[in-house]
Amino acid sequence: MLIGAVAASLIAVPLTLLSVGRLFTPMLDRGSVQTGVAEVLKQDFGLADVEKVECPSDQPATTGTQFECTFSYNAKSYPVAVEVINDQGQYRVGIDAPK
Question: Is 47 strand, coil or helix?
């Protein structure tokens, strides 16, 4: 009986940890980030003609993660910095506004 209880806890603990994200690092959804960055560029930076945003895939949704996306504006490509600000995957977008 004791062996059965130990085996059950060895399975239950990893499954519980997996379900709450303790055994793997949650990743940002690339498409959602690209859409979100485009919205920020248009609404907050006034760049209504942003044509395309490209971000790298497999970015961890953990506080402090930093990466660079690129966006097209007036037929030119520009970098945009992205920093994850909390473990819920919220991020900050920053650029030197194109002229």
Answer: coil
